[in-house]
Amino acid sequence: MAIAAATAVEAENAETDTPTSRFAWMRAFRRPWTLTGIVITAVFCIFGIIGPWVAPYDPSAVSKATLQPPSPEHWLGTTQTGQDVLSQMLYGTQISLLVGVGAAIVATVLSVLVGLAAGYLGGLSDELLSLLANVFLVIPALPLTVILASYLPKSGSLGIILVISITGWAWGARVLRAQTLSLRKRDFVEAARATGERTSSIIFRDIFPNQIAVIAASFLGTVTGAILTQASLAFLGLTNVTEWSWGTILYWAQVSSAMLTGSWWWFVPAGLAIALLGTGLSLVNFGIDEFINPRLRQAGIGTRKAQRAQVRAQRAKVVRGPARVRGQRPPHQPYDPVTSDVILRIENLHVDYVGENSVTPAVNDVSLTLRRGEVLGIAGESGSGKSTLAYAITRLHKPPAQITGGGIFYTNTDGSTTDILRMSDNELRDFRWDELSIVFQSAMHALNPVLTVGAQLDDVLRAHRPELSSADRAARVVELLGLVGIQTDRVNAYPHELSGGMRQRAMIAVGLALDPEIIVMDEPTTALDVVIQRQIIEKIIELKDRLGFAVVFITHDLSLLIELSDTIAVMYAGRVVELADADEFYRNPRHPYSQGLLASFPTLSGPKRELAGIPGSPPDLRQLPTGCAFAPRCPLAFDRCVEVVPPLIPLAGPAEWRQAEAACLLYEGDGSAAARVPDGIAERIEDAR
What we know:
By secondary structure, the chain is α/β, with parallel strands linked by helices. It has 25 helices and twelve strands.
């Protein structure tokens, strides 16, 4: 896919690539066997086009030179009736290639339409289309082909093309459906859905390019199979035997007992042509796979282009934003419940995974607020409901996940409020990326592997800013890459050509493409080393301060949240168990679960202490214990904890911070842990601290 961003960068730098660099992609075909396949295929195609015009004789004309071996007059000899074999081969090449390519085109189109649609749409559409494909797979292909061809003996090449296409499309559709089922769950497809791209666009712009290698292999294999099938049908006399093809030549050679009479020149050229063309197509397929799959390309191509682009970028002296002091954190803004500018409000949200005989509450009665310019951190162990909450906020959850209660309200800059859960598909498409975007975890999977970084940024702009020209989109792509600290020469880089940190910054650039008010970041530093994590966190803080967006930052790493967040919400078993200002949370965590999470991190200063983990494992959400879900693991639990589900209880704290809350019965009453607890619990609390 050619992208406008690359063109704009080259034009801006006013430097013309050399002819060698323009055709560098051809080096993907420089392997000897690939070139051999191209030459073989090209020779047959040329003879298929010009064959009837260069044939020395009429292929059906008889003469007295019967069964003559190859000679200067007849280069490939003659038949039993004196017909020239070379002329028959030249005419036959055109018909054989026409049938092979025509049948392959029809069968491949059917395979692509059925396979991609069934795999991506799912549900009833998948069942019906898969049933249709399975019916053709169950029926033996050869008998069905023979039966159909026997009813169309005089239909010529068109009839054979239809017969081969009808019997040959189902297997390719089955393969493409299986590949699509895998791809549709990848994060880059979710990202495309989040940008508001239409279903047809996602299928043909995101899923289809990832399967071109499979489609190309299927197409070339179908060409070979169609030529062999046509030759077989002609050999059996089930086609129009007066229409010359390689199979027809073999038919007349067999009828005339050419093998018994030793007339090898009659049947060897046709059989050899079929074998050579099949070999050439197979070799071409290797080269196509190497060109289409960026991972298989020679590293030298990308390296040299990157070096030249880097020189151009240095000459252009791209200006980036002001540098941030390393490790500096913006000053804390005191919380004012009256003047706070709430941009997102989650009220009593419930998200369940509904099965045939069970309902699993993944998010259970969660209420949160996010202010403009604030970072709301959400922490918890794996399975606590963090990612489910993120997908619910962005309306990207898919069955069996269902939002069964609550509301998610977005407040516009004009003060009007909209319930995200009640948005129509068109409203949601406009809302996503313009007002709210998401940065997925595992950027290698969130980025489309067969599209360049610049192309994926350009996709977002084309979907939501159709009024922008190609040059404007290209300039915005360059601006976004510079904004997140990626050199603009990487606009043509594929995801696998970037480091983990650069891929994650590229995902942040995608999230910032339309200047949203809210960015949901679902574990954006997962699988990155601590140095790269530090760089990503600093970049997020810098961009937030500069652009003023709000962030919902989801992770299981509390040390990151404490440095980055203004407010922290801790989730356990689908519920929020503690909500507090980040500094207050670090200084004085209230919930026993929060205390256990913080106790599992070593300190870099102060006296040495033994790290203490949390005993046990998170509960099975399908069979939650009665009362407090954390009670079986809590060292401070008492009898009422297994009887009562604790609500979020307001806690006493400094007036300048957000009002802290904890879902723990230890704080019933006036918010003090010493209130209304059995004897000995208060001492155990102090010991735990």
